[in-house]
Design a protein that fits this description.
By secondary structure, the chain is α+β, with helices and mostly antiparallel strands. It has a single domain, classed as Aspartate Aminotransferase, domain 1. The chain is built from four helices and six strands. The chain has a six-stranded antiparallel sheet with strand order 1-2-3-4-6-5. Strand 1 and strand 2 form a beta hairpin.
Length: 125
């Protein structure tokens, strides 16, 4: 997945916004301007592939953490958060990555206050 493909996919998810921050990382958030949650981060790669970081369920975290080309996301996972970073498509192709980005968007949206989710028409549970 290229950076352009990553940004285009994330832009297509409902109520998402983009900012470049944290040393040039492309950060996607769900919510509204004053209340939003990060669901995807791309950048910080030392290799030829784009590193993409996303939120996962506890079960997915356990399954993905040990797969080649994937790792617990630096900084986030070390603080107990369930985030995975894909470094290469070795264990996760782009189609599967898109599925996980969509799920990350849903999980992050669930972290928004109930009234914000309701106002934006985002999932309640």
């Amino acid at each position: 997945m290229t950076l352009d493909e990553y940004n285009a996919f994330c832009a297509g998810l409902s109520h998402s916004s983009h900012v470049v921050q944290w040393g040039g990382a492309h950060v996607w958030k769900v919510g509204q301007a004053d209340r939003n949650k990060v669901f995807a981060i791309a950048g910080w790669s030392d290799g030829a592939e784009l590193a993409v970081t996303f939120k996962v369920s506890p079960m997915s975290f356990d399954l993905l953490s040990e797969q080649p080309g994937l790792r617990p996301a630096p900084y986030l996972a070390s603080r107990g958060m369930k985030w995975i970073q894909r470094l290469t498509p070795e264990s996760m192709d782009d189609e599967t990555l898109r599925d996980y980005l969509g799920e990350s968007h849903r999980l992050a949206a669930l972290g928004l206050p109930k009234n914000v989710r309701r106002k934006l028409g985002l999932p309640e549970a």
